[in-house]
Design goal:
The complex is a heterodimer of chains A (530) and B (47).
Chain A: E1 2-5, E2 15-18, E3 23-26, E4 28-33, H1 41-50, E5 53-59, H2 61-78, E6 85-90, H3 108-115, E7 120-127, H4 128-132, H5 136-147, E8 151-155, H6 161-168, E9 174-175, H7 181-189, E10 193-197, H8 205-208, E11 221-224, H9 230-235, H10 239-248, H11 253-259, H12 262-267, E12 284-287, E13 295-300, E14 303-307, E15 310-311, E16 345-354, E17 360-369, E18 382-388, E19 396-402, E20 410-413, E21 422-426, H13 429-442, E22 445-450, E23 453-459, H14 471-487, H15 495-501, E24 510-513, E25 516-519, E26 524-526
Parallel strand pairs in A: 4-5, 5-6, 6-7, 7-8, 8-9, 9-10, 10-11, 16-19
Antiparallel strand pairs in A: 3-12, 12-13, 13-14, 14-15, 16-17, 18-19, 18-21, 20-21, 20-22, 22-23, 24-25, 25-26
Helix pairs in contact in A: 3-5, 10-11
Chain B: H1 3-14, E1 21-30, E2 35-44
Antiparallel strand pairs in B: 1-2
The chains are: A alpha/beta (530), B alpha+beta (47).
């Protein structure tokens, strides 16, 4: 596009759009999200556009872990041809701790191949502990990204001082894990872009709005969602809601707008995006007012695609390859598979305890073996847990977990960070086996069983992590998940988040994988027996 | 991006080749100057 005053010259008979004094804003960019699971891309598009978001940069670690290189290739195709620009960052740690967990993943050669693509803008979040510990995979990947002059998105939660310096020397260019202004400033001082996260996983805008009044270069700040789930997309909007909140939290109007437009465009070297200026794509939001950011129209690539509160395009659903809808190839698990053998008597046992919504810790308890197997302790909320490799017939780790509240049933899901294997937790081993059996039948998603009866199933057959449902249906199933978990006794404040992070080896302290129990601090598989 | 493409866009800008779309009467949020540029026209060709 080109810009001129009202007397600009043009020939021919172009379409004339009278903006009638509306405010034209560059389309918003979500510079860090995870739209590679939980809903099909084509279903996400109208919601993104409705929220003024014309470009997304997504991780694809879920797909890499769940379905490898073929999965990534298919996912890339699934994003093309829609009125929403989608770029990617290449997944570095698939899985995070390969000696202690297994996923389909991608090889270094495959990683290098995808990072050379123009629509791959850099490396996705590489957990800092793996990097500073010298994980050779990620250092090779970082070197490759540097040689291609691409970004290295960081994940430096909690790293500061010397540890942060060690992390940044590997070329990290941004981080979305700052939880307070001091952490953010330390990164900005080192030339790192700070991505302020306001989304499903965490909401940090309020705390980080302290940056608004500081004498720092605001061009180093970027607003990101780190993913909006279906409930948020339906109820809140998208980056329009994030920008509006940034203004409400104290950022100036222009700083807030720039944090979702030119700043991410500059960071990712998207020179044709982020501004209404010559030679940039005409991705434009027509705003009625500057306070409420009420969106009247959205233009993508020169075409109006949203107006009068309606998405104007009819989108053809992407036809995912059949093979990628059948990715769970496990054996037939039986209730006794979830029992743990032990000599008759009392044993000191290492148990995973849920500490916060994303953090676990180790607790030690005494469990009794009466019939050659350890007995769960329902009174103290200690029940069996297992993680099953989704592609191996019979590879799984098992143990005990405290703090789920589950009293009469089981839950199984493939929506787990980062491996996308199968997590199963239950107060009854028969229910656990039934949940796994059902999850295999529906090829991924989430299942809840009570007293042998399946009371909830949410199929996600694509890669085992993407349902073939509309956003509204995903929202309803998400809300139903919370309700049905209560039926079996659990009352997590944020059940989906808490459950899917239980096996996550990127955060402390005691985790479970398909290879067993992992002590994150020592990075070792440990026995449950002490 | 090719030289041919740039020449085409240059000629649209000069008024020699017709654009696809013209947006008139717009108040543009300018992210470089922190201003609202009033009563602006935007000429669009090939997105």
């Amino acid at each position: 596009m080109s810009i001129s005053d009202k007397n600009n010259q043009f020939c021919g008979d172009p379409e004339i759009i009278d903006a009638k004094g509306l405010f034209l804003c560059p389309g918003f960019i979500d510079a860090h999200t995870h739209v590679d699971s939980m809903y099909p891309f084509y279903e996400f598009v109208p919601y993104s556009i409705r929220g003024g978001t014309t470009t997304v940069i997504t991780e694809c670690a879920n797909i890499a872990n769940a379905s490898g290189f073929k999965g990534i290739e298919s996912y890339i195709k699934s994003t093309k041809g829609y009125p929403l620009r989608c770029f990617f960052v290449a997944p570095p740690l698939t899985p995070p701790l390969p000696e202690m967990e297994e996923s389909v993943g991608i090889t270094l050669d495959e990683f290098k191949k995808i990072l050379k693509r123009k629509d791959f803008l850099g490396i996705g979040e590489a957990y800092w502990i793996s990097v500073v510990d010298g994980d050779e995979r990620v250092l090779e990947q970082a070197a490759w990204a540097i040689s291609l002059n691409k970004a290295l998105d960081g994940h430096s939660s909690g790293a500061k001082g010397q540890r942060l310096n060690e992390y940044l020397i590997t070329g990290i260019t941004s981080c979305h894990e700052s939880v307070n202004a001091n952490e953010a400033v330390e990164k900005i001082k080192n030339g790192v872009y700070v991505m302020i996260r306001e989304g499903w996983v965490r909401r940090e805008l309020k705390e980080l709005s302290r940056l608004a009044d500081m004498d720092i270069d605001k061009r180093r700040l970027i607003l990101v969602s780190d993913v909006f789930d279906a409930v948020m997309l339906c109820e809140e909007g998208y980056m329009d809601a994030v920008v509006k909140k940034a203004i409400e939290c104290g950022f100036s109007f222009f700083d807030a707008i720039k944090m979702a437009t030119i700043n991410p465009a500059d960071y990712h070297r998207l020179r044709f995006l982020g501004a209404i200026a010559p030679l940039r794509y005409a991705d434009i939001i027509f705003l009625k007012d500057l306070k409420q950011l009420s969106i009247e129209k959205v233009m993508v690539n020169g075409e109006i695609v949203f107006a009068e509160n309606k998405f104007l395009k009819t989108l053809k659903p992407y036809n995912y390859p059949e093979a990628l809808k059948h990715t769970i190839t496990i054996g037939d698990y039986k209730p006794e598979d979830f029992l743990i053998k032990a000599e008759i008597g009392e044993h000191r046992i290492r148990v995973i305890e849920i500490s916060t919504q994303t953090i676990t810790k180790e607790v030690v308890t005494k469990l009794v073996s009466k019939n050659g197997f350890l007995e769960k302790d329902l009174e103290n909320d200690i029940i069996p847990i297992a993680v099953i490799n989704k592609t191996k017939p019979y590879q799984f780790g098992k143990g005990f977990i405290k703090g789920t509240g589950i009293k009469n049933g089981a839950i199984a899901t493939t929506i787990i960070w980062d491996t996308c294997n199968i997590l199963v937790i239950g107060s009854d081993e028969k229910d656990m086996a039934e949940a796994v059996k059902t999850l295999k039948r529906i090829q991924g998603g989430a299942v809840i069983v009570k007293n042998g009866e399946v009371i909830y199933e949410f199929p996600m057959p694509v890669f085992g992590t993407i349902p073939l449902n509309s956003i509204e249906e995903v929202r309803d199933k998400t809300l139903e998940f919370s309700a049905k978990l209560k039926v079996i006794g659990s009352n997590f404040e944020r059940p989906f988040l808490t459950i899917q992070t239980i096996p996550f080896t990127g955060l402390p302290f005691l985790r479970i994988t398909d290879k067993g129990i992992v002590d994150i601090k020592s990075k070792k598989l440990v026995s449950i027996f002490l | 991006m090719t030289g041919k493409t740039l020449k085409k866009l240059l000629n649209v800008c000069k008024g020699i080749i017709p654009p696809d779309t013209v947006i008139k009467n717009a108040n543009v949020i300018n992210v470089f100057t922190n201003t609202i540029d009033e009563d602006v026209s935007i000429t669009i060709k090939d997105g």
